[in-house]
Structure formats: structure tokens, C-alpha cells
Amino acid sequence: MTTRRDRGALLWRVYAIALGFNALILVAFIAGSMFFTGGQMGESDTTKWQPVWYWPVFPVPAWLLIIPAAIAAVIVIPMCVLTPASHVTRLLNAAGVTGGSAASAYVFMFMFPAKSGVFPIPEIGTYVGPHWIALALSLVCLAVLVVAFLIKAAAYERMRKAGTLPQ
Q1: What is the pLDDT of residue 2?
Q2: How much is the pLDDT for 44?
Q3: Which of 23, 127, 138, 152 gives 100 a disulfide partner, CB atoms 3.0 to 4.6 angstroms apart?
Q4: Of the candidates 54, 70, 75, 78, which has an alpha carbon nearest to the alpha carbon of residue 105?
Q5: Is the pLDDT of residue 1 over 60?
């Protein structure tokens, strides 16, 4: 039989894995680009040594970031509700993972522009890539986490002053 606290921890793990995957994609892309493409980090950059493969090492399709961000967006509210005030640091950890996911989506939406879309980039005559959807979902998650943290932190502080925090 799982307890209320266990379900909050389980949802936090799923949330952290989903958005941690997005951040890991960025790290893998940067490492792969540095090593395999001769240090070329963007399409307009030059190589610093003989490349093994040409840029990009692997193009990052938008769905690869959108699906985990959508999973996190579905999980974030139940996770915040089921997280007890005594575990408010869990929400801070989730905010860190969310920031990494948002940074990943931000980088990729400019690195892989689209021929058509919603947000134009006039300088290069294209549109930001559909990775912006993952960025929007991550920012929604971050807003929910901030609100939940403010509510839970107040309860945590009351518990701390009353000496009722679990050991």
C-alpha cells in the first residue's frame, strides 16, 4: 500500500526523469558537436580540427523535447499537491531540472529553425523551431512550481517554528 508521501515522491521521480532527459539531450549535443564535428557548435561556425562527421552530429527533432515536457506538464500539479510541506526541497530540485529543460528548448529552437512557423527570425528569414513548445511547457511547469513552493515554504516555516518537522 503506497502512502500519500510515496506517490508525491514517485511523481517527482517521473518529473525529474522527463525534464532531465531534455537537459541531457543538450549536454549530449554539445559534447557530440565538440568532439565529432571538429568543435563546430552551429551551422555558421567553422571547424577547429578535422571533423569525423559534419554538423549537426544529430539533429534534435522538436518532438524529442516536447513529449517529455508534456509529460512533466501533466504531472506537475499532482506532484505539487502530493508533496508534503516537510519535503519542500523536492520542489526546489524540480525547479532546477525545469530550468535545464527550458534552457535546452531555448537553445534548440534557434539552432534548428523552421521554414514556417509562429515566431519569425527576420535576421535570417526563418522561424524559430517548434522546440518553443517544449520551452512554453517548461515555463508553465516552472510557474506552477514557484506558486507551490511559496505555499509549501510558508507551511514548512510554520512547522519548523512549532518543532513539528519529521526527522
Answers
A1: 47
A2: 77
A3: 23
A4: 70
A5: no
Q: At what angle do helices 89-111 and 62-82 cross, to 10 degrees?
A: 160
Count the neighbouring beta carbons within 10 Å of the beta carbon of residue 106: 18
Instruction: Say which DSSP state 114 is in.
Output: B
Q: Which ranges constitute the DSSP H helices of the chain?
A: 4-36, 62-82, 89-111, 132-162
**Rounded Cα distance, 21 and 4, in Å:** 26
In a 10 Å sphere around its CB, with 0-12 CB exposed, 13-18 middle and 19+ buried, how is residue 98 labelled? buried
β-partners of residue 120 are 127
Task: Give the Å distances, CA to CA, from 74 to 14, 49, 147, 157.
Answer: 11, 44, 16, 28
pLDDT on residue 41: 77
DSSP letters spanning 25-56 = HHHHHHHHHHHHTTT--STTPPPSS--SSPSP
Global confidence as pTM = 0.86
How far is CA 8 from each of CA 11, 71, 83, 94, 148, rounded to the nearest angstrom? 5, 15, 5, 12, 13
> What's the CA gap between 65 and 74, in Å, rounded?
15
Q: Which of 112, 141, 133 is nearest to 65 (CA)?
A: 133
Segment 40-86, tens digit of pLDDT:
877 778 888 888 888 788 889 999 999 999 999 999 999 999 998 88
